[in-house]
Structure formats: structure tokens, C-alpha cells
Amino acid sequence: MSLNPCPVCGMKDRYRKIYEIAEGKQIILCVCGLQAISPPLTMEEIRKIYGEEYYDIHGMDHFRDFFNLKLRTCKRLINQVGRYMSASDNTNHLDIGCAFGYMIEAAKSAGYDSQGIEISPAADVAIELGYNVRKVELKHAAFPEEFFSLITAIDVLEHIPEPKEWLQECRRILKKGGVLLLVTPDCSSLTAYVRKDKWPHYKVEHLYYYSPPTLKRLLTNIGFNEIRSRTGIRYLTLNYITSHYKKFQPDSLETKVLRMLEALSPRRLFEYPLCFPSEMVITTRKI
Ligand SMILES: [Zn+2]
User: Fold this and answer.
1) Buried residues in 230-265 as b, exposed as e (16+ CB within 10 A)
2) Predicted local distance difference test score (pLDDT) of residue 49
3) 196 C-alpha to ligand 1 centroid (Å)
4) What is the domain range of residue 249?
5) pLDDT tens-digit readout, 179-211
6) How remote is the CA of residue 187 from the centroid of ligand 1, in Å?
7) How many A from CA of 120 to the centre of ligand 1?
8) Ligand 1 center–CA 12 separation, angstroms
């Protein structure tokens, strides 16, 4: 059982099942509001998930388009976080779970001295693209204490089996006054409420599901300050959305509607980057 004890409230066995999802997994809810997957993945399953298939760019139709959309979303996040940075900060930036390096690219173009870590084979692509990336987990990365002014982790926290220890390590390597920016699905969002067990973020590799209050509580327990949360936005094209649905939900109603639109609409409409509400964005500071 995964909430034993719960990383947010520390209670044991105070959960109940809320949904059954794929592959014999359940979504369970702790009294504190944290949701988790049960039974949690074994280390063996985790290694398998992040193997060759996880970021298969050969199976990805439009790698450059995909990269550019992610880059656009990351540039927006970097611009927004710039407001919280002080002029005296150094420019050391770390992106955890950097995939192909789009956040590193966004941060570099904003003047940061940027590096990343990534455990999936996407790391090899990022290195080939010339980014300063190591294929290592945070706990084994041995970064010096109080080194970074900014740490970002986009769509990462939900994959972390020991979030408390992971956030403590983030805090250790962050300099005083430094900022941590997290983007993670919000299980209290309207989409989650409406889609229930069909919420697209319920996936076997997502181990914990946070809401603004549970994540704030966890960060406060660890000693973070100035915690702010908001709903983020991401850029997507109809091309991207359609190929995603064709791949992952080929028989869904959404896929049928998108296929019909694709046949009827001008091509340029499908290539235009559109803004969509996305996961929650949390920024917090080490004081
Ligand atoms: Zn709890």
C-alpha cells in the first residue's frame, strides 16, 4: 500500500478507494486529499516504463513541432518565474526530468546557465542536441549544496515515488532566496471532477496526484516559503492533439470528432498554436 505513511499528512492507512483504472490499478484518496495509485509500481515496472518506448521520437510524427510547442510553453513559464527572481541571483538553473531539453533551451534564451537531468532515453537526444544533460536520478546527481537559483520540474512530481525526500533534495541544492517551479496535474481541477476515472492523468506511471492544498502542505512541511499556485496554460496544435488521440485513444469520441474536423478544415488551422488551460503551476522560495 502506497500511503504508508502518507507523504503529506504522515497518517497510516487513512485512505479509501475512489476509482478502478487500467491494469488492475486503483486510485485511492487519503483523508488529507492526496490521491495515489494502488498498488504502486515496483522498481522493475518503473524501469520498464522509462525504457526505450517512453519518449520514442522515431514513433513521433513531428518531433520539431512537438519540441517547439513545448519550448513555447516553457518560455512562458520562464518569463513568469522571472518576476520572482531577484537581481542578485546567480544564473544557475536546473531542469529535473528535462526530456529533450526544451526547458533548458527556454532558460538559456532567458540568460540562465542551464543544465538538466533525465532518466529516460530522451537524455541521449538532449545530449545530441548539445544540452548540458546527465542521465541520472536526482538523489544520485550529487549537486553541491545551495547551488541553483532556479529549479524547474515540469510534469515530474507525479512520477516521484518518495516526494518528500525528493523535495528535500531540491531544497538542499537550492540557494537561499532561490525558486522552485513545479508543474503537475491538479486532481481537484474541473477536468478531473468531470472526467472522474477517465481523467487522462490517471496513468500507471503517475504515482501521486496533488491539489494546491496538499502540495502546499507538503512544501510547507519541508520548509519552503512563499508558495503560490495557479492554473498553467500550454500550447498545442490541433495536429498534436489529433495524433495524440489517434495513438492513445483510437476509438474514442474525441478521436472521431478530431478526424472529421481534420478532413474538413484548412491545414493551417491544424498547425496554429492554441492556448489551453493545463496543470497547476506552483512556485515556491527557499528562505
Ligand atoms: Zn494523507
Assistant:
1) eebbbbbbbbbbbbbbeeeeeeeeebeebeeeeeee
2) 78
3) 20
4) 238-271
5) 999 999 999 998 899 989 989 899 888 999 999
6) 14
7) 30
8) 8
DSSP secondary structure, 231-253, as one string? EEEEEE-HHHHHHHHHHH-TTSH
6 Cα to the center of ligand 1, angstroms: 5
Task: Write down the pTM of the prediction.
Answer: 0.89
pLDDT digits (tens, 9 = 90+) for 23-75: 789 999 999 999 999 998 877 787 777 776 666 655 566 788 888 889 999 99
Q: How much distance in Å is there from the Cα of 239 to the middle of ligand 1? A: 40
Residue 24: what pLDDT?
Answer: 87
> Which uninterrupted H or E stretch holds 109?
helix 102-109
Going from the C-alpha of 14 to that of each of 26, 29, 221, the distances in angstroms are 15, 8, 19
Tell me, in angstroms, the distance from the centre of ligand 1 to residue 93's CA. 31
Cell numbers standing for residue 41:
509500481
CA of 219 to the centre of ligand 1 (A): 14
Domain shared by 166 and 253, yes or no: no
Are the C-beta atoms of 232 and 280 separated by less than 8 Å? yes
CATH of residue 142's domain is 3.40.50.150
Report the 10 Å Cβ neighbour count for 272: 11
Does any domain span residue 189? yes
Query: How many distinct structural domains can be found in the chain?
Result: 2
Q: For residue 256, is it within any domain?
A: yes
Q: Is the peptide bond before 5 cis (omega within 30 degrees of 0)?
A: yes
